[in-house]
Amino acid sequence: MSIFKKLFGDKQDNGPYRSPAQYASSRSGQLTKAPQTVALLRNYGVTADRELKLEYFFYTNSADKAAALSKSLADLGYEGGYGESAGGRNEFVITGWTSPMPMDDQTVREWTGRMCDTGSEHDCEFDGWGTTPEQ
After folding, report:
1. What is d(CA 2, CA 80) in angstroms, rounded to the nearest whole number?
2. Is 94 helix (H, G, I), strand (E, B) or coil?
3. pLDDT above 60 for 1
4. How far lies 59's CA from each of 36, 40, 94, in Å?
5. By C-alpha distance, which of 58, 61, 78, 36 is closest to 118?
6. Crossing angle for the helix pair 105-121 and 63-75, nearest 10 degrees?
7. 16 falls in which pLDDT band (50, 70, 90)?
8. Contact at 8 Å (CB) between 83 and 94?
9. Mean of pLDDT over the chain
10. Residues 22-66 pLDDT 10s
11. Longest dimension (CA), the chain
């Protein structure tokens, strides 16, 4: 963490993280990937009625934006947090786990769309999700 951030916090305006066109492209890609990932889970015996927690990932360019999104996700009952990204590009990662949800295509696809939209509301980009069948 830089001395500036330690002394003054992360109140400076970092500008928008992504443009509206970048968000739209990312959302489209995430909605395409969601059913493909669910299909892969079927290979591991995960049925549509099985409920699993999903691990989520978001990125942004401000600790304040990351904190606001992290709070919104906590308000949904999700466990998580945020911190500086290991990439060192002045990015912050927001990650955590959802409450269990059914692993059917419609539920996961709708949840993915909501996560893209929620991220966008906080100027954060939803970078996807993962899970493990051994829960």
Report:
1. 24
2. strand
3. no
4. 22, 25, 6
5. 58
6. 140
7. very high
8. no
9. 90
10. 999 999 999 999 999 999 999 999 999 999 999 999 999 999 999
11. 51
Single-letter code of the amino acid located at 80: G
Type of residue numbered 102: P
Number of neighbours of residue 56 by Cβ within 10 angstroms: 24
Amino acid at 109: R
At 49-59, the pLDDT tens digits run 999 999 999 99
Residue 21, φ and ψ in degrees, nearest 5:
-65, -40
Query: What pTM, to 2 d.p., does this model score?
Result: 0.86
Q: How far apart are the C-alpha atoms of 79 and 81, rounded to whole Å? A: 7
Q: What is the 3-state secondary structure (H, E, C) of 48-85?
A: CCCEECCEEEEEECCHHHHHHHHHHHHHCCCEEEEEEC
